[in-house]
């Protein structure tokens, strides 16, 4: 369990929103979004702030390096999901992505990129965001689920995943693209691949029944298994409860699989046991954040970079505001 893995980053970037609320401009193609009429917007915002704070504290306690940034604006309702606009890669590479919804394009922040350059060894930053002007989108590790071991980028077709942008990313970052169709119980395209699947070092969570093409479904499972992983099949109900929206991280005592309390509650004991062969499950209660159609994986942008200094000399996490 303590074996190091290029699949599991040691650090993450998180955004703590001060004015969170489900984004009406992304609801049309995100069937995972929901509303809460029982609470006032201010109560929802406060609850989301607290959920992010507890999760950042919990990850830090587990030995994960947490870089927590604040968003005090009222114009970026989905800023809590930074994995959609940037990703980091071993060898010192950073990618910045084009976002489908205009309401999300302002989430890109220069201060986060500068932090990465200051604290980690960044060799280059490739910015694809200019593709937005051409109506071409690729929403980061929401649109792609990356196998850093097998060098495969799994991507479900949607408004937020353009195959031209995907090919360009894969050429630059040395991944093989594997594109497939995936639909929910109503036949609508899954908006982001990372609600459908999670790839760990020794396992993969995936809702295979949501991939209509049987041949492609079999091919995907075969590619995952040929890297030595156990494929853990998720039901549609489990996907709807965000069981696929998880991420493997490297903590102080070995690897942890981070998911929401709702996701964990949806898993069968045998599925949890299969995960825990190689990693400990760490769950956080984020029901307010999940109103926006994303869960724990969406909240975490993994840092696959080498530090400029030993981790012990860095102040990894400090809450800048208490509430």
TrEMBL record:
Cross-referenced InterPro entries: Amdntrnsf_FN0238
SUPFAM superfamilies documented for this protein: Pentein
Location of the region described as Disordered in the Swiss-Prot/TrEMBL record: 15-37
Taxonomic superkingdom: Bacteria
The protein's name: Amidinotransferase
Species assigned in the record: Ensifer canadensis
């Amino acid at each position: 369990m303590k074996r190091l893995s290029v699949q599991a980053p040691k650090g993450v970037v998180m955004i703590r929103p001060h004015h969170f609320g489900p984004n009406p401009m992304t609801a049309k193609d995100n069937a995972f979004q929901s509303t809460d009429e029982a609470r006032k917007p201010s109560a929802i915002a406060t609850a989301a702030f607290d959920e992010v704070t507890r999760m950042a504290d919990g990850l830090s306690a587990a030995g994960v390096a947490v870089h927590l940034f604040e968003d005090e604006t009222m114009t970026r309702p989905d800023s809590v999901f930074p994995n959609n606009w940037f990703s980091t890669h071993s060898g010192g590479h950073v990618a910045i992505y084009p976002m489908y919804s205009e309401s999300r394009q302002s989430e890109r922040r220069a201060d986060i990129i500068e932090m990465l350059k200051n604290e980690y060894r960044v060799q280059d930053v490739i910015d694809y965001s200019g593709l937005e002007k051409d109506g071409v989108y690729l929403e980061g590790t929401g649109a792609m689920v990356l196998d850093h071991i097998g060098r495969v980028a799994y991507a479900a077709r949607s408004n937020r995943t353009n195959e031209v942008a995907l090919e360009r990313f894969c050429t630059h970052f040395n991944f093989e693209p594997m594109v497939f169709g995936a639909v929910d119980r109503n036949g609508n395209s899954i908006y982001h691949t990372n609600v459908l699947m999670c790839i760990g070092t020794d396992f993969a969570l995936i809702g295979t029944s949501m991939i209509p093409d049987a041949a492609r479904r079999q091919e995907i499972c075969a590619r995952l298994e040929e890297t030595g992983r156990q494929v853990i099949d998720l039901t549609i109900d489990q996907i709807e409860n965000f069981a696929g929206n998880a991420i493997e991280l490297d903590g102080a005592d070995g690897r942890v699989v981070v998911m929401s309390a709702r996701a964990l509650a949806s898993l069968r004991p045998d599925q949890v046991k299969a995960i825990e062969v190689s990693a400990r499950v760490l769950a956080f209660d984020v029901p307010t954040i999940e109103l926006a159609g994303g869960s724990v994986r969406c909240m975490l942008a993994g840092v696959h970079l080498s530090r400029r200094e030993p981790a012990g000399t860095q102040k990894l996490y400090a809450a800048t505001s208490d509430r």
